[in-house]
Amino acid sequence: MSDGEHGFDTEWRAAPEPLRRALGLAYEALAAGGLAVGAVLTDAGGKPVAEGRNEAYEHGPGTGPLRGTPLAHAEMNALAAARTGWDLTTATLWSTQEPCSMCAAAAGFTGVGQVRYLAPDPWALSSGNGAGSAADPGSPHWLLVANTMFLRSVAVASDGPGEPRILTHHRAVEPETTAFHDSLPPGLPTAASPEDWLRPHWARLAELSTARELRTHR
What we know:
Layout: H1 3-14, H2 17-31, E1 38-42, E2 48-53, H3 74-80, E3 92-97, H4 101-109, E4 114-119, H5 122-126, H6 140-157, H7 165-173, H8 175-183, H9 194-198, H10 202-216
Parallel strand pairs: 3-4
Antiparallel strand pairs: 1-2, 1-3
């Protein structure tokens, strides 16, 4: 294993458990051909107690209670796995993407104490709404990973000519993310886990993460 790959493993282990699990769920959605978003609900001590991934575009057997419906966003599936008697005021809802208005409203309605997300909502950015300034990836490379998986899932699902507008837009507003997207093998990933998928590309990811930090903190 190279020094770069060792660097990935060190960073991955240092990331909070719910962050790693949310990315893992997003990867599961991506590998299944769905929209790559994952969400984890933790208790006051940071222990994951419920989780979900986007299953709105998937049918057949699955885990999410809302699978195959327009409500089956990752955050909605995580919240649907919570029990009515739980006190969510001390809970944290982690998501790989900035929650949409539906998911944000659901988190507020159920009394979730805190919402943390790793990356801004690509759809909002492409439509000129929201800057995702409250994104909290912990380390900048997880922002790139979250949005790269999201963009890849949209690109693979697109059946129109050329690349999807959302990907073209991100080439202007998030050039580091699209550069990392383009550096990965085309199509859906076949690796068993996000760690196996990302580890060989850690040097490039670290380079682009640094470039994004320099660009956004000038």
